Amino acid sequence: MSVRWSIGAITSAIRFGEVQCTSMDIRVGHGFDSHRLTSPEGGGRQMCIGGVKIDCQVGPIAHSDGDAVTHAVTDAILAASGQPDLGTLFPNNAPENECRDSMEFLVESVTRASEQGWAICNIDITVLCDACKIVTHKEQICNSLQKHIGAPVNIKGKTFEGTADIEVIEVHAVALVQRGIHE
Ligand SMILES: [Zn+2]
Known about the structure:
The protein is α+β, with helices and mostly antiparallel strands. The chain has one domain (27-177): CATH 3.30.1330.50. It contains five helices and nine strands, in the order H-E-E-E-E-E-E-H-H-H-E-H-E-E. The chain has helices at residues 3-10, 68-80, 86-89, 103-115, 138-149; strands spanning 15-16, 19-20, 23-38, 48-49, 52-53, 59-60, 119-129, 153-158, 168-181. The protein has a five-stranded mixed β-sheet. Helix 2 runs parallel beside helix 4. It starts with a helix and ends with a strand. Residues 33, 35, 62, 68, 71 line the site of zinc ion (ZN).
């Protein structure tokens, strides 16, 4: 018995939207992103986390706007829905991606997932950063992402606890997606 059938047996005859489906396909995707952080004088961009601009003495060195949270979430959605990854779809040496609003990448990933019949169940994000506190902006960031994703988003912040030699932001994200199967 395949794993898919095991899930299908448990969730048989689920109503998916308006369509009666015999089983449900469920997948998970993981996304990771990191950027070095530096002062504006050193070339750091405005700190932007999940589409929310945050006051910070340092910001990401990046080709696009350097929104590491949005990059990780986009890659998680692309992975879960079987799409090419962020770097393949939006190369970081392409002129059209310079200073680009990363929300455009996220919207593209949600559109691609939807076109393949995938509905996003939820997103969970962990940010490692010593330069700014995520908890202060948690609600704003979740609202900003949920607006484009249409599913619950959770975010939590951690510090490096002295393990990072350089100023950096690292983000891990997971996305769960589901779609009905007509059999
Ligand atoms: Zn990035």
